[in-house]
Every structure is written in structure tokens, then in C-alpha cells.
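Hi everyone, sorry if this is the wrong subforum. Our group has a chain we'd like a structural model of before ordering constructs, and none of us has done structure prediction before. Sequence below.
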Amino acid sequence: MARTGRSRNIPHWYGGDDDEVLSLTSGEGARVTDDDAAQYLDFMAQLYCVNAGHSCEPIVDAMTAQAREIPYVSSSKTTPARDELAARLADRAPGDLNDVFFSVSGSEANESAIQIARELQDAPKVLTRWRSYHGSTYAAGALSGDPETRAAVERHAGTTGHGKFLPPMVNNSPFDGDTPEAIAEQAADHLEFVIKNEGPDSVAAVLTEPVAGTSGAYPAPPGYFERVREICDAYDVLLIVDEVISGFGRCGDWFGIGTEGVEPDMITFAKGVTSAYAPLAGVIADEGIAAEIRAEGHPLGQTFAGHPVACAAGNAAMDAYADGLIENARELAPYLEARLRDLEEQHDEVAHVHGRGLLWAVEFADPETGEPYVDPRVEPDADNPVEDVREVAREHGVLFGSGRPDTQVLCSPPLCIDRDDVEEAVDALAAGIEATF
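Answer:
Right subforum, don't worry. Here is the predicted structure as C-alpha cells:
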């Protein structure tokens, strides 16, 4: 049911009094139900986070048991559930990323990572991509390349210590390479140019998603991250990978950077670590960084970082991922890609399909001009047909996500879906395209 009455709750990402807000009351597997008993296939996992599905009883049981044992332990202390999850995250992270600093949300995880980087590097600047999203708190919002978020947080107070570089996109690329490999080289050269012109000694870190999240699910072209790693090493710049969306099976591996074969200096995580059953986030750091933090101490913290009930959820979620969910995501990914590419072939309005694992974007453009029907970055009040596509899909019982900018439909289902769910979702999306265009 779309609720327009006087709820006392103010939703996030709220468009005002004209914005209809869906009221959900229950969930089972990959499906959710509203307060009118209408059921939807949740093909966005709410906010790209309910990776284990909406009814994973072992997670609920683990949270209940932990709450009965001890519901809260200060983040300045240790407790078994927290220690166990840290060890398991270190075991799944690549290379020497063996120590965990817990946080509460993805925004706060990214802020923790850049605070650590600036302190250890004694340098103020963190470089992020245009067309990126790293959170909506002041520092994380300033890091985001998405103008809607960045403009909102900077409307009344400026932020400092960040710079931007161009994304390595193959479609709608800011670069003119003839092949993905050529674009990768140009994009990496551009990053090196930015580091040089910012002054390498002033740059603490590069922060980037291995596969873009809400900004469009685009993966990097082959060879890009290898060059980024080399450039960061050459200029003594830390490489931080934002895995808030791409982690925990979303891209077919424990972490999205695992599909690139590159070891970063830090990983930030959130969302899927507990399958969103409780708020939890953090930073996984390599042994050298962790050793410096342990030796010098860390003067900052968050009350609910590493909450024991959330850590219990995280341990149970990791069991679920290891017990077939990530394998299921890997097996279904080619089928989801193929069905989405059918839409690209069948509908001229679909300009491009891109993604990895179970994270995909269907991007729309006017076939006559190649430009978006509406670019919300410059036409925020215009009627946007991409919104209509999602609305019709919802009327057909499937929920999809919106991208940044909203020229695309994002697909990010729970990892427990099957082929029939893929068929249902793509059919609903096709119905939305046909009804709109």
C-alpha cells in the first residue's frame, strides 16, 4: 500500500508530501508484503543489503541468543561475537587485510577509513570518482561524486579534504578509447594526472568502489584496478575499496575486489555483512596499518560500533553465504545478465546493460540522440520516464532500485533467488518499458 497519511515517521530520501511511501509489513525469502497484503518480488534487496533474503531463521536465532546472553558491550571493549566476526572477516578478505575496526553504517565506515588514512599518511586529501556514492554524512557526502547528495550536505557548510577523478566507464565514457582495455589505460593515466596535480604528498588515499553501487553498477574495464594499484604504490597513496554494496556475495565473491585480483590497503563494508538484519559496518585494514593503529591508539569511536547482536547476525549471515548463497549468486549471474541483455536487444530505449554478479543496471536513453530522456542532475523537476518504468514494474509485483543519476533501473536481488524469479523480474521490467515508451 502506498501510504500518504499522517505517519509520524519521516522517511529517508523523501520527496515531500507528494511522495508515496510503500508500507511493508512482512518478508519471506526474496519477497515482501505490504499492509494491503500485496506481495512483491524484492529485486533491490531493499537497499542492496538483504543478501540472505528476508527470512533467514539462523540469523534471527543468533541475534536472539546474543541478546539473551549480553545485549550490549561497549565498543571500547571486546566480546566473543565481535572477536569471532573480526576473525572471519579477516579470513575472507584478500591478502594481508587481517584486522577490523567496526562501525555502524557505511557512511561511518568510510569516514573511519579516511580518518585512519589521513592520520597515518599525514596528508589531508582523499580522491574519489565523479559519479560515485559513499554515504550521506558530511564527510562521506562530500566524498560522493553524486551531485544531489554532495550539494545537499554542502548547501550550508563547506567541506574540505577531497578531490575527484573521472570514472572508468565503458558506456557513456568520458574517455575515447576504442576498446575497454584502452579506456582502462586512459582512466588510470587520468587518475595519475590528478594525483600529480593535487601534489602526491597531499593525497592520503584513493577511495573507490570495485563495482559501482547506486551510481550505476558499472564494473571497471580489464586492467584498470591493476594500474590503480601500481599508481597508488608509486606515489605512496593508500587504496581504499568501498564494498558497502559490492561485498558479501553481491558480485559473486565475498568481496567485489576479489573479482579483480587486486589487494587494497583497506576495505570498508556494511549492508550485507548482516544481511541488513542489524546495522553493522567497519574497516578491514592490512597488517601494517593495523599495527600502527594498535601502537599509537585511536582516539575516536562510536557507541554502537560492533554491537554484539549485530555481530551475532554477521556470523550467522556468513554461515548462510558460505552454505550455498554465494555459489547460487555465481551460478545465476550469467542467466540474469543474458535476460537483461535480451531487453537491450529488444528495446531501443535500453541504451546499455552493465554489472557483475547480482548487481546490474539497465540504462535508458533516447535512441535518436543517445542522451538520457531526462537528466535529473540538470532537470530535477522534469517528468522522468525511468520512474514510470519502475512504477509499472511495481504494479506487476516487482521492486527495482533507482540509480544516481536516475537514468537507469538497478537490479540487486537477494542471493536466494532462482531462475523463475529472474524471469518474473525481467518480464515485469519489460512490461514497464513497453507501457512507458
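For your construct planning: The chain has two domains: 2-55+324-436, 57-320. The first helix runs from residue 45 to 48.
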